[in-house]
Amino acid sequence: MAQALVPLKDLVLAKTRLSGLLSPSERRALTQAMLEDVLAVLAVHPEIQRVTLVSDDPSAHLLAGQYGAVHWPESELRCSGLNNIVGAASARLLVENEQPLLVLHADLPLLCAQDISAVLALRRLRPGLVVGCDRHGSGTNLLCFDASSVPDFCFGTDSCARHMASARARGIAATKIQRPGIGLDVDEPRDLALLLQ
Questions:
Q1: For 157, how many CA atoms within 13 A lie in the half-sphere containing its CB?
Q2: Other CB atoms closer than 10 Å to residue 23's CB: what's the count?
Q3: pTM for this entry
Q4: From CA 15, how far away is CA 29, in angstroms rounded?
Q5: Buried-state track 165-181, b at ≥16 Cβ within 10 A, e below 16
Q6: Around Cβ 72, how many Cβ atoms within 10 Å?
Q7: pLDDT at position 134, please?
Q8: Which residues pair with 144 in a beta bridge?
Q9: pLDDT for 77 beyond 90
Q10: Of 43, 56, 92, 131, most Cβ neighbours within 10 A?
């Protein structure tokens, strides 16, 4: 069994790089739809015991409740920036529960149960850190670890290589996985075009 953590920006502020294509209300609707795709997969996966949504969005508690997830307001973690927020939430979850933790982005519309199963199976085969990379092989869309293999969170440019390198520098085994359902995060117009295809 495992647990999952999904950090979410305020929906009003999300996906600004799509502002040339979509209005603010359309960006909000798209972001919410992708989040619900992710939560729906996690909610029914037989190996995921708990899902935690971390967000200050006013509707986050309602969305979490709809899919049986726990909601933590981001402001309660008393930090800012994705890496710090994920670090603080991960530490809290791993203290409360020894199960492996999956951290995954909310904008993975093609995510499916088989992706989650593949990550957990890989981690059982190769204990340590599993890094789910984006379709370019450079960004990180998912991490899986336990208390003994917590990474230095470095989401951002070239984060896949940086997560792998920092883990290995600390003596933590790190394995990369690339799958279509994990790889397509929607940030830019080209990503949206691929999704529509």
A1: 0
A2: 10
A3: 0.94
A4: 11
A5: ebbeeeebebbbbebeb
A6: 23
A7: 96
A8: 102, 130
A9: yes
A10: 131
